Prior knowledge:
The protein folds into 2 domains: 7-242, ATPase, nucleotide binding domain (Nucleotidyltransferase, domain 5); 252-502, 2-Layer Sandwich (Nucleotidyltransferase, domain 5), CATH 3.30.420.40.
Amino acid sequence: MDTGYTYVIGMDMGTTNIKAIILRSDGAVAAEASLPSTHYNPGLNMQEQDAEEWWEHVCWILKSVTAQLRPQERAKIGGICISSHTVSMLPVSEDGKPLYKALTVQDGRSYEEMEEIVEKVGPDRFVQIVGGQPAVAFLPWKILWYKRHEPELFAKTRWYLQASSFINYRLTGVLMTDLDQALRTQCLDRETLEWSEEISRAMGVDLKHFLPEIKLAQEVIGKVTPWAAEKTGLPEGMPVLGGCSDALAAMVAIGLSRLGECGESSGTTSLIFAGTNVKSPADVPVVTRPCPIENMPWIFDAPIQASGSALKWFIDTLAGPEKEEAERRGVNIYAYLNELALKAEAGSGGLLFFPYLQGERAPLWNNYASGMFIGMRLEMTRAQLTRSIFEGTAYALRHVIETLKAEGAGIDCLRICGGGARSRTWNRIKASVLNLPVYVLNQTSGDVPVGDALMAADVTGMFASLEEGVAKSIKVDEVIQPDPEWVKVYDKLYPYYVKMYQ
Length: 502
């Protein structure tokens, strides 16, 4: 279907950056812009963001990318799809005005409320309803915390929104949330796809009143208003899609197109995806979600809490000598650590690193899990210490993938994107820890806004299908095969990694 559109916009409201790209009909990125997001930490285990800053940044970014096109090209933009980090809690008034800073997925202040709600519903019953293990990141307990600690603001609150639904509201005037993020809130009944009355009763909060209407990711929910067009530079009347979580957009951007492929979006945290044709039970460590990809009705997606952040923690706290040496050489500290790690043997002399620096999500779902080194000896080297960080995060990845295999996912390769994909050392280690070929995508492929843009292109008819868009836009830079000698070492050490936690 030729609609005449030759451009679409994809935007991701990430935890650290907001980024938008304009995708052209030949699969190339025609324009891009981004700005960092500010985090506020008002107390222990608290993390917030300012929704008005989101909007200011979105306006600047959209004006920036559209300005990179000529006027006649801007008229051929077919639509926009926006994803965001999940789960946030943004309380807004009846007219959509933010009343409190958004509590992000990293906010852990509501642990007591989580235990209370889960106990009232019953742990097994709760898992049956929402299709996942409770964790402090999710929405019910955030709302209850807000009700108890900010009662005056709670009384003024009409809606609780995600980052993308807030921006969609500013663009269109339509209050909604998308099905993908709704499924991730732990407020939605997995079977009925309605806001759970049982969880509402346990909270003492009517979720059906406070949570908006649910739309599909690729549903056109409205059009850009004249006011929003003036603020953002977008064409007035341009279609706006429902959008999704950054996880789903990353899965599309990774280019998963068949059963057997597994994907990792490797950044501060990691998100792992694998398709399946069988819906999982609700009471397993990682559950399936509906998937928009043809011939892949269900998708596992599993978050690892600390991936790139583990390496950053090492740099910030323990890598003083390495930072000095990198500065002396005039090289980036990450590049130097990649080089240094390869000076140690596979297995790091038996030193195991457990990357549970902020608890762990999949497959443990344990907020109390703690990071640790096990196996230190007097003869340990700085190279071994460095390599153990790369290996420990790779073991965490294998722990997830082994869990997915046990639940029916057939996995024969790993497709990897994100900031972590730039580390060839890390990719080599992952290939050997997993004993799978690793397909490293180029820096444009796998970028979350590309996934958003591909969904918009599919809906607007810029591409005949999502598969055509993936084929034109997603490119593999390198395929890394496992090192047989490294595989032997990691196969011996991995069981110890699992047993030490247990």
